[in-house]
Amino acid sequence: MSIWADRSTVGPSPQQAVYHFERALSEREDHGFNDTQRMPSHMVLVNCSLLLASESLRAIKQLEDRLYDEKLVERYRGEILLQRAEEFARALYGIVTPADRNIVAEERYFAEQEECLPNEVQLFIENDRDGLLVRYGGGEWIGLDYASFYLLALLLYSERPLTGDEIHQTLFFSFLEREVTEAAIRKMIERLRHRLPFWESIIETARIGNRVARRRQRGVSSRIFCRASDVFPWESGSFLK
Prior knowledge:
Elements: H1 14-26, H2 35-63, H3 70-77, H4 85-90, E1 93-96, E2 101-104, H5 106-113, E3 120-126, E4 131-136, E5 142-143, H6 146-157, E6 162-163, H7 164-176, H8 182-195, H9 199-202, E7 203-208, E8 211-216, E9 221-227
Parallel strand pairs: 3-9
Antiparallel strand pairs: 1-2, 1-9, 3-4, 4-5, 6-8, 7-8
Helix pairs in contact: 1-2, 6-7
């Protein structure tokens, strides 16, 4: 069960699940679960509790700009084990694809890195972004600099070809908050093409009017392995997929 499960799915809410599982687990053995049933029940409780905690941390952040009794709130603030949702998410693992973002257990996070499909690009953010790596089809990992890594991630995410102007707006202006020219972006793409021997296999070039645009090749998939707290260019609010 992903703790970031789709809340639109029919079924009990995390609050309901916590209530019923805790009630069942508190009963005596003659009316409750056996040991085999208790183990996965406690596992589900962990996931539900983490989801509820993350939602409450987000709610606290949204309420910070409201009017409240600061003296009373500060009394409780010191008792919170985690102060911010970002601190909470930093302890969790994430797998991001063009279709969705999932929070996963540590075991699944590392197991899926060993299962690279023939036409799959894997990107890996290691040690708080000290290592930014990419590989294709289960080949060797190749290190990339910060801007190149996120440029590649953006191209792999997009379902439509992106022009230099769109890359500038989404990646550099909105995400990296850097001012660069389209000529600089073209040079960066050229360096990526030389750096990655599989570039032509994963990125296709198209034309939109008289402008060059690029996107993920058809039939190519991608996964990003990261911390749950990592943010990507298309999440900056200025990107239309």
